[in-house]
Amino acid sequence: MTTGHRITIEKSDRHVRVVHGGQVLAESDRTLVLRETGCPARYYIPPQDVRLDLLTPSATHTHCPFKGTASYWSLPGSADLVWAYPEPKPEVTRIKDHLCFSEVEVG
């Protein structure tokens, strides 16, 4: 990682719930919180705690020089709401296949 840029990943002790359009998309007590220089804290949720049946894979992929290439999923009317790193960089391997939502409630 470049000088001054830092990523930390730790098990969250908070309950995370994702609700969109009144529907619960995910709920977990097993999330990982990723903190990255210049970015808000992001909660990565294991796929077992996500309603994958409600998500549609997107053609969108983005590349982060620190985490790797992200794949995205959408909901009707909400493109690219969810992302994951199927093959993350070695430094962040703990988030492999965990899903991150742009909107979460943390309790």
TrEMBL record:
Q: Which Pfam families match?
A: NTP_transf_9
Q: Where is the DUF427 domain?
A: 16-102
Question: What's the name of the protein?
Answer: DUF427 domain-containing protein
